[in-house]
Amino acid sequence: MRSRTANWYETAIRYDKTMEDGMPKKVIEYYVVDALSFGEAEETITQEMSAYISGEFEVKNITPATYHEIFFSENEADDRWYKAKLQFITIDEKTEKEKRSSVTYLVQAGTLNGAVKNIDEVMGGTMIDYVISNISETKFMDVYEHASKKAEE
């Protein structure tokens, strides 16, 4: 597992997809891209999709993501993306009361149980107490990292 912190944008692409019966159907697919602005997010998703989609497509939506860190799996069978909300537990030294702060992550895994395992693998190396308060599968097809970051790795 590796994690990456960046400014992420959720994008929606609409295009005519050829179905198994050979008929075209308008579909909307969702992707996540690493970008510094809406314009860069649109440029990135347009470049990435032009390699996979023949014909015209339209960027229908670009939304800043509620998470800034993504956990990437090295396992090729992990082809789904899960949004996980973790609550970090701290004790306020003055009042001695438990305090919880929520953080959302995007996690790559093959199953829901795999996503929990991947979260535990990444968070197990930290000293922070946490609870997974919510985890759900997303409709994201893929995540595209910034091109210069890929070249460095």
Quick recap:
The protein is an alpha+beta fold and 153 residues long. It has helices spanning 38-50, 112-123, 147-152; strands at residues 2-5, 8-18, 24-34, 57-64, 69-72, 80-91, 98-109, 129-137, 140-144. A five-stranded mixed sheet has the order 1-5-7-6-8, with helices on one face. Strands 4-2-3-9 form a four-stranded mixed sheet.
Describe it for me?
The radius of gyration is 18 Å and the shape is elongated. Mean pLDDT is 89; it is low at 149-153. It is built from three helices and nine strands, in the order βββαββββαββα. With 153 residues, it is an alpha+beta fold. It has a five-stranded mixed beta sheet with strand order 1-5-7-6-8, covered by helices on one side. 20% of the residues lie in helices and 50% in strands.
Core attributes:
153 residues, alpha+beta, four-stranded mixed β-sheet, elongated
